[in-house]
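Need a sequence for this fold. Nothing fancy.
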């Protein structure tokens, strides 16, 4: 694993990587658009729902993120309980509330769609994790807030969870800069399939 020697070096590496990754994601979104979300929905999750994993958190697509809503709709039709993340405060893990495509949403931080406050809180078994980039080691490059790293660290203390990074195939990097607190993913799911 490549870990920068000094935190300043690592922050600079991540900043440069985010700039490149954002450009790659924007181009992939422009090229594939909504087709990518429909392609994504054709792939099976690499988990067994009948092995105790029954709830999955997705995310409402923001900016040029790949659209997981068609996949969530299919999962609901298969009997999964689905949810969306909610940012409660800076520096805190995410909270998850039950939600299925077609249900009403409110607006959270950064004007992202979130379930209504009346929705039931859920501790998901499977997390579909958004990202700017990923590598074949299972590391992701997020947006810099650390929300998913904190959340995965907390959930993994409570129970077995499966973290599946979801992105366009073009968001793959040779090597994502990694800090000691970065939580690895178990799988990657792109419009081309499972890694």
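Here you go.
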């Amino acid at each position: 694993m490549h870990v920068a020697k000094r935190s300043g070096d690592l922050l600079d590496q991540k900043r440069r990587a985010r700039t490149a990754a954002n450009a790659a994601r924007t181009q992939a979104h422009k090229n594939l658009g909504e087709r990518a979300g429909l392609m994504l929905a054709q792939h099976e999750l690499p988990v067994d729902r009948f092995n105790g994993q029954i709830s999955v958190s997705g995310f409402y697509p923001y900016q040029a993120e790949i659209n997981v809503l068609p996949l969530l709709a299919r999962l609901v039709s298969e009997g999964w309980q689905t949810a969306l993340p909610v940012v409660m405060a800076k520096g805190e893990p995410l909270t998850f509330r039950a939600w299925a495509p077609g249900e009403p949403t409110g607006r959270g931080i950064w004007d992202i769609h979130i379930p209504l406050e009346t929705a039931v809180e859920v501790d998901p078994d499977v997390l579909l994790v958004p990202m700017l980039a990923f590598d074949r080691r299972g590391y992701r490059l997020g947006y810099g807030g650390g929300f998913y790293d904190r959340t995965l660290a907390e959930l993994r203390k409570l129970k077995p969870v499966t973290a599946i990074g979801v992105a366009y195939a073009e968001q793959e990097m040779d090597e994502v800069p990694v800090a000691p607190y970065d939580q690895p993913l178990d799988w990657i799911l792109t419009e081309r399939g499972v890694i």
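For context: Confidence is low (pLDDT under 50) at residues 1-5.
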